[in-house]
Records
---
Amino acid sequence: MKAKSFAWLATPVIAGVLAFLPTAQADDTTNAVSPTAPAPKKISGVELYAIHCNRCHPERYPVELKEAQWKTIMLHMRVRANLPAEQAREIMKYLQEEAGN
Amino acid sequence: MKIRSLILGAAAGGCAVGLTLPTTVAAAVSEEAFNALSDLVNKQGQALEDLKKTHQQDQQQIQQLQQQLGETSVLATNAEQKAEAASQAQTVYQAPNPATSATHNFIVTGDAEVQFGKTSGQNATFALADFAPIFLFRANDDTLFEAGFDITLNNNVDATGARAPGSSTTVSLSFAQMDYNLNDYLTLAAGDVILPLGTYSQRAAGWLNKIPDDPLIRDWLPGSGIGAMLQGAAPIGQSGQMVTYAVYGVNGPSSGNATNGVANASDLDLGGNVGDSPNWHPNPSGGGRVAWFYPWKVHYDVELGVSGQTGEWSDNRQHRWSACVLDAALHLGPYFEAKGEYVNTWFGTDDLGNVDPHGVWVQAAYKLAGLKQNLPLLNNLELVARYDNSDDAQGTRTDRYTVGYVYYLSNTLLFEGDYEFIKSHGPTALPPSLFVFQLSYGF
C-alpha cells in the first residue's frame, strides 16, 4: 500500500528519463559505427560550469568573484559536488578568464 | 718573454759577428763587403728598434689588462657584498607566498534565511532568523579547511517545552572538515564531515532547497559525523559523464539517554557521538556512496546514487544502526528539475526489538521562463511540488503534499512560499496543514 502511494509519482520521472536517454544513446551508437564520424567533442569549461552549478543552484556570475576567490570556491565545490579534478580545472580556466578584478 | 729572447739573440748575433771578424780580415775587407756588413748592422738595429716598440706596446696592453682585471675584481666584490646584504635583508622580511598563505585565500560564503509561517492551530508568526556562514581557508591548491555554522534565534522554552520568557541564540557547528586532494581521483576529508547519505545534506542550504522545510525522512539520517572520508570522482570520456564514490568511517550514532546500559528506541541519538568524553561506545560506523552522473547535453542530465552506513549505536554494544539511501536527480533543460530519495533505516532496541523507519520524497520544479513569455514577473517564478511519505515503524505514518513557488529576486536572493497538506496518524502525528514564506539569500 505504501509502495503504491508513491510509485505513481516515480512513473513520470522514469518516463522522462527514458524519453530523453535513447536520443543520446542513438547518437553515441551512430558515432561508434561510422568510420568517418568525428571524435567526440571535449566538453568545455563554460559548459561544465553550466552543467554542474545548475545541479544545485542558479549559476553565479563569474565577475562576482576575483580569480583567487574562485580558486577557493572551486576547491570547495570540487569536494562538495564531487567533481573530477580534470573537470574542475576546465571550469577554473573559464573562471580565470572571466573573473572580476 | 719571446721579445726579450729576440732582443738578446739579435745582440748576441751582432757580437758574434764582430768577434768572428779578425782584424786582419777587417783590414783587408773590400768596400763592397763593408757596405754589406753595414747594411746588415743597420737592418739588425732597425729590427731591434721594432722589437723595442713591440715590447712597449705589449707592456701597455698588459697594464690595460691588469687595470681591467682590477676593475672586474672590484665589481665582483661589490656584487658579493650586495648579495650578502640582500640575503641578510630577506631574513628580516620575507614576502608572503600567495600559494601557501591561508589568510590570503580566506572567504566567507553561506546563506541566511528569514521565515514567516503558520501551522494549523497556532498563530501566524515570524518563525526563523537563521544565519549560516561557511568559512573557507585555502592553504594551497590542494588543501582546504571549511567550517559551517548555523546561528538561529529561538523563543525560550522550559524543560517541558512550554513557553518561557526571553529568547536565546543557538550557535551550532554544522560541519568542520579539512580537505586534502591526494590526487586527481581521491580527496581525504577529516573532521566533522558532511555524510554522503543521499545528496540532501550536501545541498541543504536554504537557497538551494526550493522548499523551506526539509523532507521528513531526513530526520532519520545524520547530517555529519566525526571521522574521516575518502571521496572522489572518475570521469567517463570527455562529455562530462562521471562516476563518484565515497567511503568513510565516523563515530556514528549513540545512546542519547544512556540509562544503566538500556538502549530504547527513543534513546537513539544520530548526531551525538562527537568523540568528546565520555566515549559513548568504542566501535565506529562505516559507510559510503557510489553514484553515476550523465549529462547528455548542457542542462540535460541524470544522477543516480546508492549510499549506506552501518555501525554500533547503543552504549551497551548490543545493537546496530544501519541505513540505505537511494537518490536520483534529473534535469530536462534549464527549466525543469526532479529529484528524490528513498531512505530505509534499521536499528535494534531493547524495548521495541528491531525498528525500520523508512520513507521517500520526490520533488519537481519548473521555471516559468520556459514558457517563453515576455513577462518579467513570470520569468522569475518557479513552481515547486513535493511529496513526502514516512513510516517511523513506531506507529506514526505521514503523507505530506507540498506546493509552492520560488521567486528569484536575483540569482542568489529568493522569496519562497509553500503550503503543506499533511495526512498523519500515530503518536507523533504532524498537524494537518501549514504554510510558510521564506526569504533566502546565498552569499
Note: The domain at 100-442 of chain B is CATH 2.40.160.10 (Porin).
---
Amino acid sequence: MMSKLTGFERTKAMLITGTGALVGLVMAAAGHDNAMGAHGWIVLAFCAVLFFFVANAAYGPEPTEDRATSYYDDPTKVGIILSLFWAVVAMGMGVWVAAQLAWPDFRFDAAWSSFGRIRPVHTSGVIFGFGGNALIATSYHIMQRTCRARMPDQITPWFVLLGFNLFCIVAASGYLMGVTQSKEYAEPEWYADLWLVVVWVAYFVLYMRTLARRNEPHIYVANWYYMAFILVVAVLHIVNNMAVPASFTGAKSYSAFSGVQDAMTQWWYGHNAVAFFLTSGFLGMLYYFLPKRAERPIYSYRLSILSFWGITFFYIWAGSHHLHYTALPHWVQTLGMTFSVMLLLPSWASAGNALMTLNGAWHKVRDDATLRFMMVAAVFYGLSTFEGSFMAIRPVNSLSHYTDWTIGHVHAGAMGWVALITFGSIYALVPVLWRRETMYSWKAVEWHFWLALSGTVIYIFAMWNSGIIQGLMWRTYTESGTLRYSFVDTLIEMHPYYIARTFGGLLFFVGACIGFWNVVMTIRHVPRAVPDLDYPTSSEAMEPAVPVAE
Amino acid sequence: MTILSILIPVTLCMGCVGLAAFFWSLRNGQYEDLSGDAERILFDDDRPLPTPATKETSP
C-alpha cells in the first residue's frame, strides 16, 4: 500500500500524522485531570501508529506505475474493511443494549456499561462507523468510475478516511467515559466536533476536485446524492454543535441555544442526519450498484433526477415533526408535518424506480442474494418512508411518540434499508475491487441475507406491537378520569417484545459476522481473476502500461 | 423562537445553493441525453470518450 505513495507523499503523511501525535500529546497534558486527557492519549496512539507505519516505508523505492492508467482503490479497500469491522462491533453493542432492556442485570454493575453509555456506542457505531465508512469507501469508488477519472491525489482520501475513523474512536470511547453533549446522533464533545469539520471540508473538496477532473461530461445521479450528503451534513453539523466549552482543558461544553430553541436545532439536525446521511448517501449507493449488479440501466433516469431534487428541497423542512405537542409554535409543527407528507412523493419515486429496474430481471433476484439484498432494501425504503410520513401526522404522532413504535420505525430504516443496501453494495463491490471472480462463499451470502431479513422482520414486528400497546395503555383512562395503567404495568407488557427484539437483533448481528468472515475469506483465498478493463479514460490505457519512473 | 431567525435563513440559503446547482446543471447540458447517461455506467471498458479535447492539452 505504501509502495504507491511517492517520497513526497510519504513525507507529507509523516508530517500530518506527526502533527496529529503532537496535538494528542498537548491534549493529554492539558486535560490530564479529565476525560480529554484520555482522548489525548488515544489521538497520540492513533497518529503514532500511522506515523511509524509510514516512516517504516519512508525510504522504500518510488512507485513506477503510471497513475493515469488506474483508479486509486487502496483507501476504498481499507474503508470497506473498517466499515465491516464497525458493523460487527456496533451491532454487537446493539444486541447487548437490547438484552439490558429485557434483563437489566446484563449491566454487570459497572458505570461504563450502563444503558445510557453503551446505547450511543451502538447508534454512533452503526451510523457513523458502519454507515459512514461504507459511504466514504463507496463514494471513492463511484466518483472515480462515473467520472472516469482518478482521484486528484493520494493523501486526501487517506486523510478523510482515517481522520473520520479517529473521530469515531474518540466518540465511542468518550461515551464509555461519560463524555457526551446529550444530543441525539451528535453526542461527541467540542474538540471531536471541530476535528470532524476539518475532515468533512477536506472530503467535500476532494469530491469537487475529482468531479472537476472528469472525462465524462455528464455527472451521474449517484454523485449528486453523495454531494448533497457531504454538503448538507457539513452545515447541519456546524450549526447543531455550536457550543461554548466550559474550559479549553476539559471535555465539557454548553450549547449556544437553550430550551425549545435547542430542541428545534437538534431535530433540524437530527432529522436531516437521517435524510442526508442515512438516505441521500445510500440512495447514491443504490443508484450505482443496483443497475451495475442487475446489468441494466435504471428504469427511469429522469425520475431519479427528479426525486433527487425533490428530496433535496423537501427534506430539510421536516425536522420539527419530532416536536409535536411541545412548546414549539404550532405553525412550525404544521410546517414540518406538511413537508413530511410531501416527502412521500420523491421517496416512493426512488423506491419504485429501483423495483421497476428489476422488473424483467426477477430471475436474477431469485438466483443472486446480492441483488436480493438491494431489492429488499428498496422495499424497506418504501415501507419506512411511508411509515415516516404517516407518523409525522400530528394525531398519529400523539399515539406513536415516545413509544417503541419510533424505535421500530428507525430500525425498519436502519436495518431494512441502510444496512441491507450497504451489504448488497459491499458484496457487489468486493470482487470488483480485489479483482476476484466471485465471493468466497455464495452460500454464506444466502445465509447472511436470510438472517438479516428475518432479524429485521422480527425486530420490527416486536417494536410495532410493543409500541402500539404502550401508546394505547398510556392513553387509557378510568371512568373517574385517572390513568388506568401505571408505568410499571406497561413495562411488564413490553417484556416479551424486548426479548423478541434482542433475538431479532442477534440474528442480524450473526449475519453481519458471517458477512465480515466471507469478505476476509474472499480477499485471502479466492484466486485473482483476470482484471476487467477498469481504468480512467484520459490515459493511453488501451496500450499496456509502460512503467515510467516519475 | 429566536432560533427560527437563524434556522430558516440557513435553510433557505441551502435551498438557494441547491437551486443554483440545479440551474447550472440545466445550462451545462447535463440532461441532454438521459438514456445514454443511464446506460454508460454499465460499460467500464468503453473507449476513451471524445473528451472536450483541449481540456488536457491547453496551456
Note: The two ends of chain A are 18 Å apart (CA to CA).
